Amino acid sequence: MTTSSKLLSSNGAGWSMAGPAMALMALFIVAPFCLAFLLSFTNQRLVSPNPTQWVGVSNFTNLLSVGVIPLEPLKDDATGEVKKDEAGAPQYPATRSYTRNNPEHPYFDGMRDWFSVTLGTTRYAVVAHDVIFMKAIVNTLLFVIVVAPAQGALALLLALLINQRLTGINFYRAIYFMPVVVSIVVVSLLWRLIYAADGGMLNTILGALTFGAFKPVDWLGQPSMALWSITAMSIWQAVGFHMVIWLSGLQTIPATLYEASTIEGATGWQVFRYVTWPGLRNTAILVLIVITIQAFGLFAQIDVMTQGGPIDSTQTVVFQAIQRGYVKQDIAGGSTISVVLFVLVLSVSLLQRYLTRGSNR
Amino acid sequence: MSSTSSPNVLGLAGRYALLTFIALIFIFPLVFMVMSSLKPDLQLLTDSKSIRAFLPVGDISLNNYFNAFKRAPVALFVFNSVFVTGTTVLLSIAICSLAAFSFVFLQWRGRDTTFALVLATLIVPFETIAIPLLLLVNNLPWIGTDGFSVGWLNSYRVQIVPFVADGLTVFLFVQYFKDLPRELVEAARVEGASWPQIYRKVVMPLSGPVVATAAILKFLAMYNQYLWPLMVTQAEQYRPVMVGLQYFFQLNRAWGEIMAYLSMITVPVLAFYLVLQRAFIASIAATGVKG
Amino acid sequence: MRKLGLFAAALLASASFAGLAQAATELQMWDHGAGSDVETKLITQVVDDFNKSQSDWVVKLEKFPQAAYNDSVTAGALANKLPDILDVDGPNMPNWAWSKYMQPLPIDEAALSKLLPGAVGKWQGKIYSVGLWDAACAIFARKSILDENGIRIPTLDKPWSGDEFTAVLKKLQATGKYDYPIDMGMAWKGEWYPYGFSPFMQSFGGDIVDRTTYKTAQKALNGEAAVKFGKWWQGIVKDKLTPGTSEDPATRDSGFVSGKFALSWNGNWAALGALEKFGKDMLFLPAPDFGTGSKIGAASWQFGVSAASKHPDGAAAFIKFALQDKYSTAFSDGIGVVPATVEAAKASKNYAPGGAMEVFYGLSTKQGLLRPVTPGYVVEAKVFEKAMADISNGADVQQTLDTAADEIDADIKKNNDYGH
Lengths: 361, 291, 420
Prior knowledge:
Chain A is mainly alpha-helical. Chain A folds into two domains: 66-128, no CATH class; 132-357, MetI-like (MetI-like fold, Orthogonal Bundle), CATH 1.10.3720. Chain A is built from 14 helices and three strands. Chain A has a three-stranded antiparallel beta sheet with strand order 1-3-2. In chain A, α8 (223-251) runs antiparallel to α11 and α11 (281-296) packs antiparallel against α14. The longest helix of chain A has 32 residues, at 131-162. Residues 1-8 of chain A have low confidence and may be disordered. Chain B has two domains: 1-61, no CATH class; 72-288, Orthogonal Bundle (MetI-like fold). By secondary structure, chain B is an all-alpha fold. By secondary structure, chain C is an alpha+beta fold. Chain C has two domains: 26-134 and 299-357, 3-Layer(aba) Sandwich (D-Maltodextrin-Binding Protein, domain 2), CATH 3.40.190.10; 137-298 and 376-419, Periplasmic binding protein-like II (D-Maltodextrin-Binding Protein, domain 2). Chain C contains 16 helices and 15 strands. In chain C, the strands form five sheets. In chain C, strands 3, 4, 5, 6 and 13 form a five-stranded antiparallel beta sheet that branches. The longest helix of chain C has 21 residues, at 2-22. The radius of gyration of chain C is 24 Å and the shape is globular. Mean pLDDT of chain C is 88; it is low at 13-21. At the A-C interface, α13 of A face α3, α9, α15 and α16 of C.
């Protein structure tokens, strides 16, 4: 888009051809987003007889406020020694004494325990005003950080596998792509049955494959497992799509390069590293950015399978936005989350583009 | 991994074994779904604990399909989905390619800023604007066969119009157009062709692959929509397949019918993909890779 | 000439009468039963009968799937496109009345005196909704299993105590014949959690919100009684006496009937299926008494008038018509719900004296406790559901209940106490 040939410049035609699309996007994407932005500064409910009031940034502070309380071990008044509990560990005062009606610490009022870190003898209790939202952000980031490289790498491996001239390879390629075609809601429904703990299909299959050595796992019921079960299922569904993208990238690498490398006696790994991978650079960037943006929108799987549980281990940002905005009828709260999400995704995307700017984009 | 090595039977068998093993992983839930749709409910559930889940054994029949049609107007829902999706895909390709043409070949004030804005909309997940969009379409006017009315709920247009223009489709076309040979366009311009003529007669005929890509992606996105139709369709006649799915989740669910319904609604999407897949794959090469 | 004039006048008069007769006003009605063939057939029958029985009003029915119904009403309210007659789930009625989706029903209270309390929806002293049936929960059990294990069969007057109930579960678990002794049904996310589980908490002495003021949940939801309930509940999940939150919905739907579970905590809508399988062996037992008496939920789907409707009298006429005992009986026979009046019960297949589900009628009358009657219920239900799920998954009971109570309090305050 850097040409400036006089033959190509034209204001009127430019605007009129781009006009319909821009008008539609302005009306149906930009305008609602601006409305969401405005709503986040009010206390608008979905429907309510109470009038809407402007509340400034209080929605944002309620959502994002975090604090750190340093706690010293409790000391016995008489002896000055540290009090210990049954296990012999030092006792600390409850954070509740700081966060409930404590006039010395108005900032912490209403916050709840998130997690704590003990350095030396001091325990630092991290408290947050909206712990569930914090967990949602952490889970979403975890999901993105794992899915982006895992799905991308897996798709690349599959593409390398598929990129052979075998008879019937197209049949396999179509099958690997098939989950992409099915709605994520349908996939979630099927997998909820597959992941069932007692006599669920996955447990049965794994048990059969390992001749009984595998013990049934409660895939969706344990806080440590639930998010990863959903991650695995999401990768299963979407990897075919990125496999096809990688495949096309692979097929643009000139065959002459491969021939040259064989002549020079390069090993498989060297071929990959020096011929294949550099040729895939642009594809890699596209794949990474698309996966990342889509991963931030994790919602349908949670809604169908776990509703954010167990114990908030599968809370995600978009799920919370819908819970608050639509289910609990607090539109202003839902919009606040949407705005925060937009800023978050924008930052990450810009960061990714910055880190990969060495290419000819 | 190019196949310049001489074929080795064991190696060949090994490769097919690996490919097949992976194929099984990708396909087993779908096989489960289709097989279950042929079985009565209780058998379906007991079979799911063994290999029988994937085999058409036991009391096989199409009863679940017949019953599904009785429980919900399946044909109506499929028609609605195909109609809404098809219309959106056609309009989207036309309008977004037009805009992409303008971004790539024309120079106008504000072009780069507008394009940056278009890219920014890629970041907004739909769920986050769903509610404000709902409030917005409630207040939009319309002149139709009934005359003037306000509010778009309960219609086809509310499921189509908001999704016609989207950042991803514009982006795909822009990337593709950037790789077309400039000389063709410049030559046509020298000969006095107008911009619409160049669009129609020079650029679009060369755009088969990107049209296929955009069509498949848009079709997938629209057909599988879950949240928006749930919010905006109140009259049964406008409901698409995903809202229809709710009909099967009343009290006393019939899981066999659910599987039958799921199998039926997957067919149009699968068919669309299989028809377009060759063009789709060819076009990914052209749009995604060159940067 | 005069004859012509008279004739013309007569013609004109009859034409205008005919015109008047054809000017029946159309009433829109929404119902939540799409996809449920029996419910759809019955409600269509009621509508047809009503339309035929008089000529002032014509009711037009639009059916919605239950899972999407509340969302559709919310969207409809935003667009000001609500129908005249509205189907509403009992506990949501105060919220819809407060949000001005609904207006009070112009029906004389005396006409409703014979109905079960759970079938009448009142908010701030006015009647907003009436239902043809009530729903009740019971412990589904099989006589053969109880006898085989020497377990006492509880009655309405002498239900199991909390300790007895836990002992029964442990005994059944010890036999090793069942995947779990009882299925509480945690696979059914959504309204089932408050409807099915809060009565247990209420039997312990806790509650979702303080019903004297409805302005706070402190002491009710996080008081001693509620914590005791939470610990008991967490115990039965941990001891594998019931499946937890990861139970898949297919197992919940079919587990009791296929013998996986010895007992099941379920509602009467599932009773017909169980009766069909087990016939005379089927028992419906009252909820255990954990200290303050056995409690079960009450109030199911009811009809009301939307606030924007210009014909509340027409809607009231329809609703009065629909309240006839014969329809109540028909719904009961069709989907297994509790008939709303004694007469309707006597005429029904399952609730007549000696009928298989007769005990449910007694349960509804004696033990039925409405979910909190407050517009804040929409949020409270969700908060309670999450608290129950977290407790089942092992979270600290006191902390979870404290958090839930705090969230409910904050929501009530944000909404200016919801008009209480």
